[in-house]
Amino acid sequence: MAAATTVNYYTNYSGSRPCRMKRGRLSIKPDSEVLPICDGAVKRRRSAAVGFLCSQSQQHDSVEDWGNLPHHVVLHIFQYLSLVDRARASSVCRPWNDVFHIPDLWRRFEFELNQPATSYLKSTHPDLIQQIIKRHAQHLQYVSFKVDSCTESAEAACDILSQLVNCTIKTLGLISTARPSFMNVSQSHFVSALTVVFVNSKSLSSIKIDDTPVDDPSLKVLVANNSDTLKLLKMSSCPHVSPAGILCVADQCHGLRELALNYHLLSDELLLALSSEKHVHLEHLRIDVVSENPGQTQFHTIKKSSWDAVVHHSPKVNIVMYFFLYEEEFDPFFCEQTPVTHLYFGRAVSKEMLGRIGLNCPRLVELVVCANGLEPLDEELIRIAERCKNLTAIGLGECEVTCSGFIEFVKMCGSRLTQLSIMEEVLVPDNSYSLEQIHNEVSKYLGRMWFPDMMPTW
Amino acid sequence: MVVNSVHWFRKGLRLHDNPALQEALNGADTVRCVYILDPWFAGSANVGINRCRFLLESLEDLDTSLRKLNSRLFVVRGQPADVFPRLFKEWNVTRLTFEYDSEPYGKERDAMIIKMAKEFGIETVVRNSHTLYNLDKIIELNNNSPPLTFKRFQAIVNRLELPKKPLPTVTRQQMDSCWTDVLVNHDERFGVPSLEELGFKTQRLSPAVWKGGEMEALDRLKKHLDRKAWVANFERPQINVCSLIASPTGLSPYLRFGCLSSRLFYYELRDLYLKVRKHPNPPLSLFGQLLWREFFYTAATNNQNFDRMEGNPICVQIPWDHDPESLAKWAEGRTGFPWIDAIMTQLRQEGWIHPLARHAVACFLTRGDLWLSWESGMRVFEELLLDADWSINAGSWMWLSCSGFFQQFFHCYCPVGFGRRTDPSGEYIRRYIPKLKNYPNRYIYEPWNAPETVQKAADCVVGKDYPKPMINHAESSRLNIERMKQVYQQLSRYKGLSLLATVPTIQEEVEPPAMEDSGAHSSNDVCPAQPSRKALLRKRERPAEMQRAAACTQPKVQRISSAEGSADDQQ
């Protein structure tokens, strides 16, 4: 009975998604026309399900064998199937239905919460959500919520979170697929829902809560309950957290290896705390530098000694910085050596700033520049090629480089440039090279075919 | 036997280089040139007034030219399937001719008409002249799938023979040998309708910036070539504020409606190049605009869902927002970003905007700022933009929103900085948004940052006389780049930190195009090609199954299962 009732919402849920199977996995897929719709269709369902599992036609007695397969075999097969296919298979017979509910299959779940008015994506069926809360909450370990830009969706996610009381969740992700709707949920609602998970699941290792109203007190609760297990914390653009709030996490959670946050939370104290002897090696530090309007935000500088401490303690750490600043706001950055590895500039950045990067970013691996002024960047690029020995990827949008300067840059870097994405307009033809020649020259130095990126003329 | 021909105009609204029309004339006793206009469709909301006016002017122009040849244009109200049986009988038609339409909807309609004509015992002659090349041939040479990169497309085009030479225009002599019976009440029954007749309000309509018709097209072509010859520069032009304004040498709307033959344009350009440069092999870049057009026509010809995300195998599935209010602000030029609003105003008033301006507003609507679906932007362009061919419009929108063709998505056009690079003093903005004309250069792209005194002095207070910016660009581009990364990481299964490596490579880009002789056999092969050595050397590691899949077929983009994905990286 349980099987018959569960199936409906799984299939509804999958309604407009013909292809849920990852490429390369078992591609078992029943005919859509034999989807079980009501209890009456049991027989057809059975034959269909068996049909898709067996390549040759089956005798009646071997059908019974399928039902008698040992649990662990069915379980193994089920692990290759998507939830929808498992649900379909579970309505074949009682033994398969039992396997369907085995905890191993419920460790990982993604709640999708969308409103028809704001998103074309389907949602997880409410009945399924209820069933999970009732029957499988204690099995959940890797949980994520994907919500659209509607506040109701984020509120629904919070409601589910507050019911996850008897859980041992290890990873939690709150993901806004469009605009950040968690920011529109009342802070108290959000924080109380989140603390339910923090308090009840005492072995959280990974938390992604970018663009949410999480605050200092809730981080304190996190630390109090999960300090031994926390390894990853992503909280870019969480305006209610203060530098002191994040410092408390760094001080207590010595296993923290990955951290994503906004620049205003980054402090010398934080970097030193992450580099203390008790702390594990940091693997990944992601920093977003965002400003609202020019002149409104003053950016502090981080001391060279603090950066040095980080690299000394964690020599392999990747430091990723995304900048969304006005040109005139860049003054505090890269005046001294900075161990950044990946740089992205979402808005125009000055020639001078790029010059400083060549001087002060010896660990640079990837540099992506969306826009720059109208002066060619030849010198800056050549300096970067000279001094940034680890550089393997570069992307240039609205910038200018002369063809000769660019060839020189590529020649110096050679085949270590595994990613080279340059808009065609960036390259300014000069006496030495035309646009036609440049593709040959660059391909020669890279050791592979290369073309500039093009935009349609339309 | 008497031959009574009907030539059916759809696109291809011209008498020069019109092979199907030539077929109609060939040995015929009577010839009638027909255009079928569905008044309901023409007057519907998704056809803007400029587009409709351009069409009617083109029809007027055709009629004028035909009069000079002692003939007329027959504009028939209705739908082809209803109209033709009537005409076939009334005119005792024995031959029907029209230009080949490569677009899926057109192919379907034409197949039906051909079948219907056959039932009437009518011979149908179809000729290709809207595109330079036979698109099916390009697809065949690319292992039976349309090329997904422009480079690949160019490589294939390079191996094709030159396009067919344009045919001369229809002459009086040719027309004289075939009689067209024109009734006294011709204007009443078959005249070109007015905008009012189609339900448009024309009281406050400003004069057309782009005048439709073949005569205008040929005139512009001449000017276009004069300018090219004068500049003697076939490289890409420097973009400045003048480029943004409609130019009397622009040709794209004329190519779209077929007032100008793409082959004529091609050969005129080529001849000019040979004359000025004295170089026997003009580079493909000379024909950039024409080839891009061809590229998108090729990509769309066998894909019915080319204009939508769902069910479109080359379109990346991106969870766009749905927000009619924001869409309306964009479409009506009320975003609060003067650069974007000026472009949308020009588009609505004149029916044309510069390619860079298209990039700017398309990026702003989709992956750059508003995170709304490219389909909704495409529909607005379809209504307003004179040169929005179905294939090119949809293809370009997919391209610009990074939904297809595997573009790097890191480059996001800034709604403030991008325009400023092109037009530092904001002349363009002052022209289309007169409210802002007194703003100093410094604030013309970002009036909300101007001090209150400056706003008052300029007589335009932000929030009162001109809208506040509808979105914080820095914040939204930060969010959107993360969203794009999420989408592309699922596609490429790339888990590293590099932003550039998130975009999967297209196998075809690194492989040489199929050999001339292999094209014929390859359809029988189980798996056309192993990844070449070069391809294996290339770039980051990818799961083996992805490489195999990419090598065997065109890279299809699937909606990735999300119920099981994404938690992978949380452990």
Structure description:
The complex is a heterodimer of chains A (458) and B (571). Chain A is α/β, with parallel strands linked by helices. Among the domains of chain A are: 71-105, Monooxygenase (Up-down Bundle), CATH 1.20.1280; 329-457, Alpha-Beta Horseshoe (Leucine-rich repeat, LRR (right-handed beta-alpha superhelix)). Chain A is built from 17 helices and 14 strands. In chain A, helix 10 links the parallel strand 4 and strand 5 (232-234). Residues 1-9 and 11-59 of chain A have low confidence and may be disordered. Helices cover 46% and strands 5% of the residues of chain B. Chain B is built from 28 helices and 5 strands. The longest helix of chain B has 20 residues, at 49-68. Chain B starts with a strand and ends in a 19-residue tail after the last helix. Classes of the chains: A alpha/beta (458), B mainly alpha (571). At the A-B interface, strand 1, strand 2, strand 3, strand 7 and strand 8 of A face helix 14, helix 17, helix 19, helix 20 and helix 24 of B. Chain B: Belongs to the DNA photolyase class-1 family. Chain B: FAD binds at residues 289-296, 387-389. Chain B: Its cofactor is FAD.
